[in-house]
Write a structure and sequence with these properties.
The structure holds 2 protein chains of 2 kinds. By secondary structure, chain A is mostly helical. Chain A is built from 6 helices and no strands. In chain B, a hairpin with a 5-residue loop joins strand 1 and strand 2. The longest helix of chain B has about 35 residues. Classes of the chains: A mainly alpha, B mainly alpha. Chains A and B meet through helix 1, helix 2, helix 4, helix 5 and helix 6 of A and helix 8, strand 2, helix 9, helix 17 and helix 18 of B.
Amino acid sequence: MLTLTKDRALALAMLVLTAVMLAETRHIRPPTSWQPYGSALFPRILLVIIGLLALLILVRSLMAGVPPRTAPRRTFTAWLAHHRIVLCLFALFGAYALLLPWVGYLAATIGFLVASLALLLGIDSRRKWAINLAVSLTLAPLVYVIFRFGLNVWLP
Amino acid sequence: MADFFLQALAQVGSPSVLLLILVGVLFGIIGGSIPGFTVTMAILVVFPFTFAMDPVSGVSLMVGVFVGGYSGGIVSGVMLGIPGTPSSITTVYDGYPMAQKGEPGRALGIGVAASFLGTLISVAVLVFFGPLIAGFSMNFRPWEITALIIFALTLVAGLSNGALLKGLLAAVLGLLITTVGYDRNSNLRFDFGLPAFSSGFEILPVMIGIFAFSQLMGNLEKLRDEPSDARGVDTNVSIPYGRILRDMAGQKLNTLRSSLIGSLVGALPGTGGTVANFISYDQAKKFSRHPERFGTGTPDGIVASEASNSAVAGGAFVPTLALGIPGDLPMAIMMGVLILHGITPGPLMFEQNPVLVGAIYASLLIGAVVMVLCQLLLVRWFAKISLIPQQILVPVVLMLCAIGSYALNNNLFDIWVLFGFGILGYLLWKAEVPLTPLILGVVLGNNLERQLFRALELDSSWLTFLTRPLSALFLALAVASVIFSLYQNRKIQRNQLAARRTDA
């Protein structure tokens, strides 16, 4: 069975993207007498180039074979555990974007900062909590004041 | 031009703009001095604060960050032995050993002085070559501009650390991103039925998402794999001014050579401070009477490194202002700032916005002076700040990125764009796809499409791209850059294979 290396995964993802986007170009208004090239030509040229480059990457990767592993193969659970912090941070950012319109800038930002600092710094000492709360409770209002009163930008 | 420069100087010299330059320089130094933060990140964080400003104020603030950022790497390079930015890697070679010998103040002072002189010389290069190239490129028609953009993209893709195919893929992907939404003919493309997609993606959240997320998450992963132990560094530094003046008196030629290398390398698309840094260090070593002293704490090495990386700032403005083609990532973002303020960088800028061009010159000069004062007076504090752990920085920067993206149009959708492109940037980074060509593609995509179809509307034959001499030259250079990087890749692979065989 073929091993899915980084290059192969990238090439396959790009080929799927090319197929989907090329299909989507059929919904773009066709050329007219005063728009002889139409709006689909440029993206189609780009998609063909992406497809060709992806194919080249795939072929090169298949010809090169799979490099010998330096570390033992990880299970999916082990991979999740290894990337725990980054994945949690992405999730926290997604939650922050989701909460912003509902709870407003201050509450959402303080919540995001406290949660992500707790994730990254840890919560096993009073000192860490003190740093966490000092950073979160100072920076969020400070940025609000700068944007609202200094730059006249209304935050949600 | 002199009249416009004086007019610009009067605007830049106003207390409010001077204060902005000071803030920019301070933030730039702090950004540059924190390992893993980089000049680009500092620029991205400050970028949103310019939205509500007039163009001169906004550009002055950004130029301040540039000047400060390129000099900020000295602090962590000398004090911690870790380059604050990739463009100050060779500063560590001699700055750190000199600090270890008990002369951190001397190392910092030499670096700051070289940075200052490098910036000044690069401004001279910009003032001389900027209008010259702009004047020449005024004759460029859509065929030449299209070919030039293609050349810039292939050059940047080809310089992507031996990953030509991925670099080209990234550049085209960047171009594709700009095709979402209404096009030049008011036709809708790739909206997938979502009204939010109809106006396309703003450049800023796309750029921040792609660059900042991959960089910050990468920093966290690096921290997980190689925990740092940069604590307990003595930050009590005193600057021996007399000694530094004597040191610099013996470095005239080195400073001039390194600054010119920095300016010229900065003006080439896809190169930037890191390349300039290595070339000028190497040249300084070759020209030195004592090459054996390099790497042991010699002033020559610090001067070569810092003069060249600071000179990149002025040099990189040449293609951005004169041709509308940003040379590197920080310049791509700078171009984004100008576009945001309704100014299109390119040859016409010298005619249509001479005051703004003058303001850039003036800000670079004033920024250089402010940088020296800040570095010399506050170096102890910068050294302390450079110790701020990534665990605190990452959430704060992510929050600033989100608010910056929102503040662009007061639109919450832009935060989702940031998030989406953040995930894309991280995944591409994990797949070892270089991100600079992608960001350059995003910045240049609209112009490329506009110019390509303008050319075809004027003359429907595609062959015209090859029959016009300059257009043909740029396309030939694009092909040559691809062939050259293929040759380089082969050479690297051959060397790696030979090294493996020797090890075996």
